[in-house]
Write a structure and sequence with these properties.
The protein is an alpha+beta fold. 25% of the residues lie in helices and 38% in strands. It contains four helices and 13 strands. Strands 1-3-2-6-5-4 form a six-stranded mixed beta barrel. A four-stranded mixed beta sheet has the order 10-7-9-12, with no helix packed on it. Strands 8-13-11 form a three-stranded antiparallel beta sheet. A hairpin with a 6-residue loop joins strand 5 and strand 6.
Length: 230
Amino acid sequence: MKLEITITAELRDSRGKNEARRLRVGGKIPAVVYGARQESVAVAVSPKDLNRILRSKSGHNTIFNVDIQGRENSPVMIVDWQKDPVRDNLLHADLKRIDLTQRIAVKVPVHTIGEPKGVKQEDGLLELVTREIEIECLPEEIPEEFVIDVVELMLGQSRRASDVVMTGSMQLLSAPDTVIAHVIAMRVVEEVKPEEVAADAATPAAAAEPEVIKKGKKEEEGEAEVKKKK
C-alpha cells in the first residue's frame, strides 16, 4: 500500500560501530537504500519516522518516499530492520527501492470474523493456524489485511488460503490448501475420583503379596532338600 509519506535521509560517508553510535547519540540510525538496479546508498534516518511506519496498519508493507538530500527521491519499503533486544529501539534498517510498475511478493495478515456454528452448536473450538499469506501484486494494490468469514464452519471444517478473495492484480503464492482456521473438538480431561486414586495406590501392595508367598515356598523347598542330603 502506497502512502503519501516522505522521510528525509542524510548521506553517510563512513561506516562502522563508532559511526553507528555517533548517529544514535544524535537521534539518527544507519540505514541502506538499495534495489531497482541502482547502487546501494548508505544513509542516516530518523528512527521515529520508521517506527511510525512500522506501527501503521500496513506496517512493513507500506510504500513511502525517501528523500536522500542532494541525490534522489525514491519510493521504498522497509524490508529488514534490527532492534535492541532489551530496549526495543531501532538500530538499523534496510530500505528497498520499489518500481511501482512491477509486481512484488509480500506477506499480508489474515484475520477472521464471526463465531463459527461449530463453536455455538457443537461445542467446538476455533483454532487459528496461519496468520498471514503470501501474494504477488502491483505495489499500489498491496492490502493492509485480508478478512475471512468463519461463521458457517462446523466441527471438522476449515478455511484455507484458497478461500481468501484475490482482487485486482493479486495472485496467491502460498499453497492453496494452507489452513487459515478450523473448528476442532475440545479436549475433555477425565476427572480422577479420590477413591479411584486410593484403589490404584493399594494395587501394588496386593500384587506384592503372592511374591512373598512364593519366596517363602522356595525357602521351604530349599530347606527340605538340605535335610534330604543330610
